[in-house]
Each structure stands twice: as C-alpha cells, then as structure tokens.
C-alpha cells in the first residue's frame, strides 16, 4: 500500500524510507517538482478532483507574498472517514507532502485544519509537528537547506461548510465560515488575501509517492489518465466496513464491496461520492470502475470516495429525509437559495415520509432543486439535491409508489 | 476570570490563526464561553464584542452557557441512521427523561445529535467527552452512560 501504511511514530516512518522524498525534492528546482506532479496526473482527493500540479503552478506564479499552504482535514461528509484513518496510520506522509508542496510553491507558513470531532488526532498531529521541529524537518533551514517552513494547527469547531476551501480560510482567519464568491480563487486571493494552496490531506500524502517514484511512473498506477492510489471509505451494510486502498480505475464498485467482506443482507443500492453530497445508485452501477473519468462519463463524481451500502432494510424516503435535515442544519445561511431551499426540501420530504405526498410535491421538489443548483453560492447548495435526483432516476418506481 | 482569559490570549500571541484557538481554550477552562470572556477577547484582539460573538456563534461546538458534566454526542448521519441510531436516541430519551439538546436534571449529561463523527466503520457511534463508542445497541449505549461517574 502506498498510502495506508502503518507508520504511527517517526522511527517507523524513517525506517520505511520516510522523508527521503523531501530530501530529494530539496535538491530539485521548485518548478521541477511542480512538473513532476503535473506529469503524475494526480488529481485532488478531497472531492473536487482538480489537477494538483496545475493548482500548485497557479500559486507558484503569483508574485504576492507571503504565500500559504493549507492542509484540509475538515472531513465532514457523512460516510467519509478515510482522512481520519490516514491521519491515524500514516500521519507523517501527509506532513512530508505538505512540506514538499510548500517548498515547491514558495510558502513559509502552513496551516493544518482539523475538524473538532477529531480533536484527539489534532493533538497528536500537533505533537508530531513539534517533534519534526526538534528533528530539523520543520522550522528554519530544513535538512540544512535554505528552505524554512513551519505549520500551525487549527482546530475547527463544528461546521460542515468549512470543508469548502474558502469557508475554511475564513475560519482560519477567525471569522464565521462563510464561503467566498469565486473568482478570485485561493491561488490568487487566499488566506488574508495572499496566494494560498489548499489541498486535502490525502492529496498531500500522495506527493511523497510522486517524488519517490517520479511523475511518469506514478502516472502508470491505475488507469491511464486517472492515476494513483485512492482511499475508499466503505460503510453501511457490508461485513467488514473500513477504508480500502486501490489505484484509480483498478477496481469496480462491486469489487470494493467484496473487499469489504460483501453485502450484509440483500443488496439494494449504494450511495457514492459522499453520504450527503452524493448519488444513490442501483445495481447497474456495480461494474463501474472507481475512477474520476468513468464517474464523469455517467454524470457522477467520486467525491471523497465513499461507498455506503444499503440492504433491503433501507427505506429511500427516510434516507432522503435524513440527508435533507443534514443540509438544512449545515447550510451556512449566507445565500438565499441554499438557506431557503434546504429548508423547503426538508419540509416537502417530511410530508412525503408522513404519507401525505402528492404529485405537486414532487414538482415543487424538482423546482427547488433546480433553483438551488443554478443559484447557490457554493458546492453545499449545488449538491444538496444530488441524492434526491439520483434516487429518482434509479429508484423511481419505489419512490413514486407512496405518492398520491 | 479576566486574568485566566488574558493568559490564554497571551499563549496564542504568536499564532496567526488566533480566535478559534482562544475560544477552544476558554471553553476548556470554563466549560463554556462566558460573556465576560468574550469582552476580554474583544478588547485584547481589538475587535468588537459583537464580532467575536458573531464568529463564535457560527460554530456548533461553542457553548455560551454551562452544560452538563458529560457531553454526549450521538451521531445521526446517514450511516448511523441506517444502522439504528434512531433507536438509540429513543431509548436514551426515555431512560434519562430528556430530549436531545437538553441537560439531565441532575446536571450529569447534556445530549446532542451530531451529523458525522467520522467513525462510520463502527456505526452507530456516540462520543462521550471526546471518546468514541462504536457498534452500539440501545442497551450498550445506556450501559456505557450508566458507567459514567
């Protein structure tokens, strides 16, 4: 495994060749590192799947200083726990990736933002940051080079929307986590208005892999044009729920479910991409390879890479109500389409769950979903209806069965 | 109190990201964020009291009044939900005579529903004072809580 290794203390990490990638990177020119990452075909693992090298390039070419780097460990998507497991099992690889990325873009300061629910892990990461300072791997003149860099840990305080990159930056700045209007993007206008590279922790953990193997070799992992290892959170009705690693495109949804011990009970469907901002799919999708491109071709996205398995005990309208309540609670309230739309979706679905759903309600739901998709400010509002829409596509008969 | 809050603020003088860190420490110290602490923070950071409260009140886990001795968060996200979190919530409400969001009369527990504790491989889960308990059944949840001092 390239990501899911067990290296909980620094001795183990060093014994497994840890920080060799950093030493190697420090001998590279900054642009050479970015070139390697671009060649590797690494795309962001936090949900948006943006090419990582390109993002680095955008920050690198900005003239404004100082530049910042942020590790996003605000893993709040229900059904997603791969960042937590990665931070528990292989934390140094994330930190190493962060240091290499900082060097490549010319950042001297980084922030590691962890959600409040993971506060024990946050304490552990803080201890590790301190440890790396003592070892000369963080702080002034890293490994005797001219490069100096330090990391500050920031603990969130309970807000799903802060996983959105600009909301997270507002939060680091000590404000409420309201997403900003983009553009300008963080590469131009990030933390305190300065160029900022913000990456998910799993993305960062891939950077040392790219540097060790070289971008060209990395790009051959998995399916062409969709490369590298990816973590999948598999939960719900499987016999061995957990985090599983596979190269992108190498395994199908069905194969990952088998890796997790197979279905508990009779298979009904899955939720892919996120436990809230995700898609409800039927058995026709079981042979879909888990790859950004295969997902896109079917009008889906892998999101954070989570798969929640439903068996016959799961009622879909109940699930949709649970998701609608989630979004109503987590909508930050800044923009009207999302603030009102999430409430309206919840109200209508609640009515349907109570057995009072009529055809007009479905029309109202569809209209609300459309408006939110067009007009919401950030991905929270534009993805709040994905579960409903995909469920309607794939389980129409069952869902309409209770509508008068 | 002012002295303690000032000490906390001083501890974070070199941080670039101060406010959340200060609020967390104040909450750890007093169990919640008292109004007087907000006053001191505002003064020391050159903010208005309203600005500090505006930011702080946005986040679910900051508390502005004292709560029970033990903080119990029960996850009701989609994974915990399909694995039976509602039955656990129902049972706890009956057993402790409270609704979610409330504190028991003896001040021992405050119960909250949260959405996504991030331990879905052990759903349904709850967190008691920061510690995760997984693979719960209604009986097991009550037993764990009865075991709290």
Please explain how this structure is put together:
The complex is a heterodimer of chains A (404) and B (149). Chain A has 18 helices and eleven strands. Chain A is an alpha/beta fold and 404 residues long. Chain A folds into three domains: 10-219, Rossmann fold; 222-311, Roll (Ubiquitin-like (UB roll)), CATH 3.10.20.600; 316-400, Up-down Bundle (de novo design (two linked rop proteins)), CATH 1.20.1440.230. In chain A, helix 14 (336-353) packs antiparallel against helix 15 (359-375). The longest helix of chain A is centred in the C-terminal third of the chain and has 18 residues, at 336-353. Chain A starts with 9 loop residues before the first helix and ends with a helix. Chain B is an alpha+beta fold. Chain B folds into two domains: 2-58, no CATH class; 70-146, Glutaredoxin (3-Layer(aba) Sandwich), CATH 3.40.30. Helices cover 45% and strands 12% of the residues of chain B. Chain B has seven helices and four strands, in the order H-H-H-H-E-H-H-E-E-E-H. Chain B has a four-stranded mixed beta sheet, with helices on one face. In chain B, a hairpin with a 2-residue loop joins strand 3 (126-128) and strand 4 (131-133). In chain B, helix 1 crosses helix 3, helix 3 (35-45) packs across helix 4 and helix 6 packs across helix 7 (138-146). Chain B is elongated. The mean pLDDT of chain B is 97. Classes of the chains: A alpha/beta (404), B alpha+beta (149). The A-B interface holds A 75-81, 84, 109, 111, 115-120, 152, 154-160, 171-177, 233, 235-237, 241-243, 271, 275-276, 308, 310, 313-314, 318-319, 322-323, 326, 329-330, 332 and B 15-21, 23-24, 54-55, 58-62, 76-79, 81-83, 114-123, 127, 130.
């Amino acid at each position: 495994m390239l990501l899911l290794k067990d290296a909980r203390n620094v001795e183990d990490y060093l014994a497994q060749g840890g920080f060799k990638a950093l030493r190697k990177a420090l001998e590279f020119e900054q642009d050479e590192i970015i070139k390697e990452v671009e060649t590797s075909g690494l795309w962001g693992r936090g949900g948006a799947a943006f090419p990582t090298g390109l993002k680095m390039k955008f920050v690198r070419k900005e003239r404004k200083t100082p530049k910042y780097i942020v590790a996003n460990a605000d893993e709040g998507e229900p059904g997603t726990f791969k960042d937590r497991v990665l931070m528990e099992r292989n934390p140094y690889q994330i930190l190493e990736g962060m240091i290499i990325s900082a060097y490549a873009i010319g950042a001297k300061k980084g922030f590691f933002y962890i959600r409040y629910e993971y506060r024990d892990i946050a304490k552990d990461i803080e201890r590790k940051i301190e440890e790396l300072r003592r070892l000369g791997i963080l702080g002034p003149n890293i490994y005797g080079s001219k490069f100096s860099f330090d990391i500050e840990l920031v603990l969130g305080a309970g807000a799903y929307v802060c996983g959105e990159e600009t909301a997270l930056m507002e939060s680091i700045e000590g404000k409420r986590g309201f997403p900003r209007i983009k553009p300008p993007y963080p590469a131009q206008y990030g933390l305190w208005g300065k160029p900022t590279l913000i990456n998910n922790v799993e993305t960062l953990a891939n950077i040392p892999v790219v540097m060790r193997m070289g971008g060209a070799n990395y790009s051959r992992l998995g399916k062409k044009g969709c490369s590298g290892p990816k973590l999948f959170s598999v939960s719900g009705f499987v016999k061995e729920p957990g985090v599983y690693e596979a190269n992108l495109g190498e395994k199908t949804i069905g194969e990952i479910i088998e890796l997790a011990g197979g279905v508990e009970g009779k298979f009904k469907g899955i939720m892919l991409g996120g436990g809230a901002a995700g898609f409800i799919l039927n058995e026709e999708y079981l042979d879909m390879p888990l790859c950004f491109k295969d997902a896109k071709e079917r009008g889906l996205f892998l999101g954070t890479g989570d798969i929640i398995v439903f068996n016959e005990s799961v009622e879909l309208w109940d699930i949709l109500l649970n998701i609608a309540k989630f979004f109503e609670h987590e909508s930050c309230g800044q923009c009207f389409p999302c603030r009102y739309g999430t409430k309206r979706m919840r109200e209508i679905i609640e009515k349907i769950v109570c057995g009072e759903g009529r055809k007009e309600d479905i029309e109202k739901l569809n209209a609300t979903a459309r408006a939110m998709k067009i007009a919401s400010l950030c991905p929270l509002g534009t993805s709040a209806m994905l579960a409903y829409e995909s469920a309607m596509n794939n389980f129409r008969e069952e869902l309409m069965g209770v509508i008068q | 109190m002012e002295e303690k809050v000032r000490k906390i603020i001083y501890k974070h003088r070199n941080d670039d990201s101060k406010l959340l860190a200060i609020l967390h420490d104040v909450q750890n110290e007093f169990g919640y964020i008292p109004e007087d602490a907000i006053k001191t923070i505002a003064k020391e950071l050159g903010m208005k009291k309203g600005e500090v409260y505006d930011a702080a009140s946005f986040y679910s886990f900051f508390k502005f009044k004292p709560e029970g001795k033990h903080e119990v968060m029960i996850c009701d996200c989609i994974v915990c939900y399909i694995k039976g979190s509602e039955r656990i919530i129902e049972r706890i409400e009956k057993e402790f005579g409270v609704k979610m969001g409330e504190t028991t009369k003896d001040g021992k527990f405050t119960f909250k529903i949260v959405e996504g504790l991030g331990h879905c491989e052990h759903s349904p889960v709850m967190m008691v004072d920061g510690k995760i308990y997984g693979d719960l059944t209604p009986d097991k949840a009550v037993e764990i809580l009865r075991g709290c001092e």
